[in-house]
Amino acid sequence: MIEIDDLTVQFGGVRGLSTLTASLPAPVTGLVGPNGAGKTTLINVLSGFVRPTIGRVMVDGEDLENIAIHKRAAFGIRRTFQNEQVVENLTAGENVAAVLDNVPTDGRPRRELIEAALEFVGLAAKRNVPGHSLNAYQRRMLEIARATVGRPRLVMMDEPGAGLAQHESEHLRHIIKEMHGYCGAQVLLVDHDVDLISATCTATLVLDFGSAIAYGPTQDVLADPKVRAAYLGVLEETT
Ligand SMILES: Nc1ncnc2c1ncn2[C@@H]1O[C@H](COP(=O)(O)OP(=O)(O)OP(=O)(O)O)[C@@H](O)[C@H]1O
Ligand SMILES: [Mg+2]
Q: Which of 8, 11, 44, 194 is the pocket-test mutation for ligand 1 (most atoms within 8 Å of CB)?
């Protein structure tokens, strides 16, 4: 459960987020909006890379102000990046293992946890392949394995679907659908692919210029003329 209360993030003269208030309880929540709307900024606030200028965010009732950035992963807040952050000189298995050094587990042996995480994203056969030898899609899958290993409570993905071939998109969609059941975490998905959001997210929050312009069941939100005008770039009169 994510609760955002009067959140403003100011970057000098630019507002990343503007008095945003929202409660996001859905197990798989979409976060959409045009370029520069504040989606990545919200993920950055939740993961601790950016501090609120005003307001606060809570996850599962815990005010994140009280959880230092280096403790957020252990608390269960995990993410993937718009540009993958795979460690080039470590193998896929070692990349996952490095996360396990910092997060609590359910007590199963490390090797088993790493295997399960790689298996979940379809990378079991690549466990000994170094990061630099994985292709873009495999690297993205490895980031998801890293974000879901251990006991995450919130997994945030920043545009995991960008630039994928069709069969890769289908695999990603499958993984996102399975994710909550697999690791128990709430999932927050940022993507410009409306079909992906629509197929995976029960509820969706729409941002524009740092503020919420709509929130509710995904299908209702995507059909909202206000959202279509802002996000899909179509005029309200034509919808
Ligand atoms: N570190 C920063 N310094 C200055 N301005 C920033 C910084 N990060 C974000 N911004 C600005 O804040 C606003 C929101 O940016 P953000 O990256 O959150 O948008 P976004 O919704 O993720 O967009 P996109 O779909 O293009 O990824 C933009 O105007 C952006 O230029
Ligand atoms: Mg972004």
A: 11
Task: Quote the CA–CA distance of 121 and 114 in Å, as a whole number.
Answer: 11
Q: Is residue 83 part of a domain?
A: no
Residues 133 and 19 in one domain: no
Same domain, 103 and 218: no
CB of 152 closer than 8 Å to CB of 185: yes
Residue 18 near ligand 1, beta carbon < 6 Å: no
109-130 in b/e burial notation, b at 16+ Cβ within 10 A?
Answer: eeeebbbbbbebbbbbebbeeb
pTM over 0.70: yes
- The whole domain housing 55 covers 2-76+152-238
Residue 185 lies inside a defined structural domain of this protein: yes
pLDDT (tens, 9 = 90+) of the chain, 239 residues, equals 999 999 999 999 999 999 999 999 999 999 999 999 999 999 999 999 999 999 999 999 999 999 999 999 999 999 998 777 899 999 999 999 999 998 999 899 999 999 999 999 999 999 999 999 999 999 999 999 999 999 999 999 999 999 999 999 999 999 999 999 999 999 999 999 999 999 999 999 999 999 999 999 999 999 999 998 887 665 544 44
- Do residues 47 and 165 both lie within one domain? yes
- Asked if residue 36 has its Cβ within 6 Å of ligand 1, the reply is yes
Determine if ligand 1 sits within 6 Å of the CB of residue 162.
Answer: no
